[in-house]
Give the backbone structure.
Amino acid sequence: MKSSIFLQTSTAILCGLSVLSAVEPPTEPMSLWFTTPAVTYLESNPLGNGRLGAMDFGGVDDCRVVLNESSVWSGGPYDANRYDAHQSLEATRKAIFSGDLETAKNLLDANFKYGEG
């Protein structure tokens, strides 16, 4: 009889403590906190270093991560930076804001894309 009361009391205390130990969101300003896992790709969290990338969908029960590795893609290695692209940026912005999307597209194609990019 005593062991039954002890077991019931212990169970009640542990259940009560488990409710009290619920995880609170972090208060640090550089923290991310999500209450539900991502459903779509655009909701997931990007992680990477430029060569290896991942999109983490979060979740506790299921872990879904989409990986991307740079050698999978054709091209390069090459320096894809267009160091002079900034020179056409103002003209491109003016074309976009004035509604001349064809001119904006041509400026972007000529000055911002690299090769077949």
